[in-house]
């Protein structure tokens, strides 16, 4: 079990928290993290590309010329693929690029990222994080008090915190159940509340 300093919203010490080594202290598995990110990005793809095959192109119902006697190559439709304006062969059709990944691997990926944040000292734990109203200025002031720079990912179930972060280019706030591998990798610092740590450990430990 590793101990990590807990701070309040003003950047002052507020005790310590004991982190579960099964979640925050494993050996990071880069290959599983890579696979999880690829899967996540694949699920975001629209998959709406589509072209018309010869049956979908308008026209071409009449045979252009008779089968024999003209000296020209036989043709059955002006919408055949070899014709200009004809259908496309084996073109893209709407599809889903999403695929599944075993639950153990998904959990190993997020635990690997959390452990790497712990190793790099990019993990910050707050005793609590609440805002009375959505106000970007107050959130910026809090981040300055914590002396964090770069891209920051905040994990908090407080809706006002999530709304306050929407207008900041380098800050993103997500609920605990919205924590994912891609965001955790892309952001330099990860800020968790003590409640968030407990919920994460309940699921992953």
UniProtKB/TrEMBL annotation:
GO terms for cellular component: ribonucleoprotein complex; ribosome. GO terms for biological process: translation. Residues 51-71 have a biased composition (Basic residues). It holds the Pfam family Ribosomal_L4. GO terms for molecular function: rRNA binding; structural constituent of ribosome. It comes from the Bacteria. Keywords: Ribonucleoprotein, Ribosomal protein, RNA-binding, rRNA-binding. The keyword rRNA-binding applies. Residues 43-96 are annotated as: Disordered. HAMAP family: Ribosomal_uL4_B. Part of the 50S ribosomal subunit. Belongs to the universal ribosomal protein uL4 family. One of the primary rRNA binding proteins, this protein initially binds near the 5'-end of the 23S rRNA. It is important during the early stages of 50S assembly. It makes multiple contacts with different domains of the 23S rRNA in the assembled 50S subunit and ribosome. This is Large ribosomal subunit protein uL4. It comes from Lactobacillus gallinarum.
């Amino acid at each position: 079990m590793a101990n990590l300093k807990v701070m309040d919203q003003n950047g002052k010490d507020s005790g310590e928290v004991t982190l579960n080594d099964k979640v925050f202290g494993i050996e990071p598995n880069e290959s599983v993290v890579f696979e999880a990110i690829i899967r996540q990005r694949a699920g975001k793809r629209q998959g709406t590309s589509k072209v018309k095959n010869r049956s979908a192109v308008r026209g071409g119902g009449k045979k252009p010329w008779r089968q024999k006697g003209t000296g020209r190559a036989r043709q059955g439709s002006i919408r055949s693929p070899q014709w200009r304006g004809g259908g496309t062969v084996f073109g893209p059709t709407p599809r889903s690029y999403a695929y599944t990944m075993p639950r153990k691997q998904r959990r190993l990926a997020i635990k690997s990222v959390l452990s790497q944040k712990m190793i790099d000292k990019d993990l910050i734990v707050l005793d609590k994080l609440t805002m009375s109203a959505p106000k970007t200025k107050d959130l910026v002031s809090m981040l300055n008090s914590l002396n964090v720079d770069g891209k920051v990912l905040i994990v908090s179930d407080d809706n006002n915190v999530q709304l306050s972060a929407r207008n900041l280019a380098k800050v993103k706030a997500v609920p605990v159940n919205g924590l994912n591998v891609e965001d955790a990798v892309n952001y330099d610092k990860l800020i968790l509340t003590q409640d968030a740590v407990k919920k994460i450990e309940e699921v992953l430990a």
